[in-house]
From TrEMBL:
SUPFAM superfamilies: Actin depolymerizing proteins, C-terminal, gelsolin-like domain of Sec23/24. InterPro entries: ADF-H/Gelsolin-like_dom_sf, Gelsolin-like_dom, Gelsolin-like_dom_sf, Villin/Gelsolin. CDD domains: gelsolin_S1_like. It comes from Aspergillus coremiiformis. GO terms for molecular function: actin filament binding. This is Gelsolin-like domain-containing protein. Residues 61-142, 192-239, 321-391 form the Gelsolin-like domain. PANTHER family: SEVERIN, VILLIN. It is found in: Endomembrane system. One of its GO terms (biological process) is actin polymerization or depolymerization. Keywords: Membrane. Pfam families: Gelsolin.
Length: 396
């Protein structure tokens, strides 16, 4: 049986307790103990030397290369590291590192992903932008890396937890195929395993129902040709492994009620379905007055001998010249928390930014009653190596 099939994690990781705070913790020490002096994953002769996309999955504290043929495919019980290296000018390379945390990943896997992301950044001379990504609220930069994204249920077992294989009398799986909204000019199609119930249906998307002995494709009345094409590809991949009947039904057909009935909706007599999307791009946070939260710039410094965290700007334009190369700055733009590290920042400041960033997120949750603040992506950039996404938020 494949490692992701029939496995259930016994202890999930709560993304509200962001993994960035695990650096320096007991888990961090255990990861270091289990790590080799050099990481084979980074030493393939290409990482850091050529543009491209590399993906690794965390498996029992190990960084295991993910097949290129499965790029964009993720399991909700796992943690992954994604490196995107791109050309800046004729010779220089820029690097974006994303550590992606599934909804059901364990604390051990999340901690390993966090630690190994820092290690990969060090391998790249500290010039990479580090990004934390959570399954339900991905950043636009992450989604734009993939033409197709598939998120399925399952995952490898944790290094500290014994996981029993799940046995089901009947396997019923429902996949939702939809175009990801608001991703600029990039068309990304998401394949997401959802709860197999009629309440998961939506008029705008395509659904693939696998009943074990037959596969049904339910095309919502407002679905797009791209979604239909992707669903056909998904079904083709499924039937390569098992030769079973496939039936495609449009919602506009009267017999489309068959699929609704198979999903437990025998008594349902509605013609339209509206289920919220299982993931959405991180949007700009709002305060209790439902107004956009103004951007804020903070300075983290220990120049006086004692670490301080001070507000520099509250609203208004932020200029690149506002950032002092001797310190570290936290820049809250509403939809993302940027951490800018000056080249002259002290080792103490570099060690503190992780906990300070998480403390700031928690402060937002409590003081502004922003219960969704934990979903805000956190990204760190280095002076002189700022990513295009960061530079787009400041006046140069």
């Amino acid at each position: 049986m494949a490692p992701h099939e029939g496995r259930v994690h016994t202890k999930e990781y709560d993304i509200k307790d962001s993994n960035v705070e695990l650096i320096g913790s007991e888990i961090d020490h255990r990861v270091k103990y289990n790590s080799a002096a050099t990481e084979p994953a980074w030493n393939n002769g290409q990482v850091g030397k050529a543009p491209g996309l590399w993906i690794w999955r965390i498996e029992n504290f190990e960084v295991v290369p993910w097949p290129k043929s499965r790029a964009g495919e993720f399991y909700d019980g796992d943690s992954y590291i994604v490196l995107h290296s791109y050309k800046v000018g004729d010779e220089k390379l820029g690097h974006n590192i994303f550590f992606w945390l599934g909804n059901k990943t364990t604390q051990d896997e999340a901690g390993t992903a966090a630690y190994k992301t820092v290690e990969l950044d060090e391998f790249l001379q500290g010039a990479a932008t580090q990004n934390r990504e959570v399954q339900q609220y991905p950043s636009e930069e992450f989604v734009s890396l993939f033409r197709r994204i598939s998120i399925r249920t399952g995952g490898v077992e944790s290094g500290f937890h014994h996981v029993e294989e799940e046995t089901l009398a009947e396997v019923t799986k429902l996949l939702r195929v939809f175009k990801h909204p608001n991703v600029g000019h990039v068309d990304s199609i998401i394949v997401y395993e959802v709860k197999p119930t009629w309440q998961s249906l939506d008029d705008h998307d395509v659904f693939v129902l696998d009943k074990g002995d037959k596969i049904w494709v339910w095309q919502g009345q407002n679905c797009s040709p791209m979604e239909k094409a992707k669903a056909a590809q998904v079904v083709n991949d499924m039937t390569l492994a098992k030769h079973i009947d496939v039936e495609v039904i449009s919602q506009l057909e009267s017999r489309s009620k068959i699929v609704v009935d198979l999903l437990g909706g025998q008594t349902v007599d509605q013609r339209t379905f509206q289920a919220s999307r299982p993931i959405s791009l991180s949007q700009r946070s709002h305060d209790h007055r439902n107004q956009p939260r103004p951007s804020k710039l903070f300075r983290l410094s220990d120049a006086s001998g004692t670490p301080s965290f001070d507000l520099v700007k509250d609203g208004g334009r932020v200029y690149l010249s506002d950032f002092d190369g001797n310190d570290i700055f936290l820049y809250d733009v509403g939809c993302r928390l940027w951490v800018w590290q000056g080249l002259g920042a002290s080792d103490r400041e570099k060690a503190l930014w992780l906990k300070v960033a998480q403390a700031y997120i928690r402060q937002l949750q409590h003081s502004q009653n922003d219960s969704l603040a934990h979903r805000i992506p956190i990204a760190k950039v280095l002076q002189g190596h700022e990513s295009p996404a960061f530079l787009a938020t400041v006046e140069v």
